Amino acid sequence: MSAEFVDTNVFVYAHDGGAGLKHEKSVALLSRLFEDGIGILSVQVLAEFYAAATRKLGMRSEEAEGVIADLGAWAIHRPGHDSLLRACRLQRRYKIAWWDALVINSAIEMESRILWSEDLNDGQRYGPVTVRNPFR
To answer: What is the dihedral of CA 116, 119, 80, 29, to 10 degrees?
Structure first.
């Protein structure tokens, strides 16, 4: 079974009880990935989640830290210098935002075929990675 990379917005909606259907779909997706042991993310996603959870969701720092600690069971991409250079090339090639290029590069380097995100176009391919919007 191929691993699946998850972008920050999915984690944020999973912890936002007021997000309605997006909350439900995020929780279901993350539960499946946890159960199957195929979830992947990056240090960037963890950092973005912490910032959004404490700022936008009003989550206590300790609670957000607990979520990050729990996600330590997942495969985590830790980009290095070469990763940043590859992300630069992706950003130029696809004319995408820098932060999106970093996420896509992390998914590629972790050999994921699926990137779950609402920030990119559903079905868009970036090399071997296909974006899937979990809310469609």
So the answer is: -20
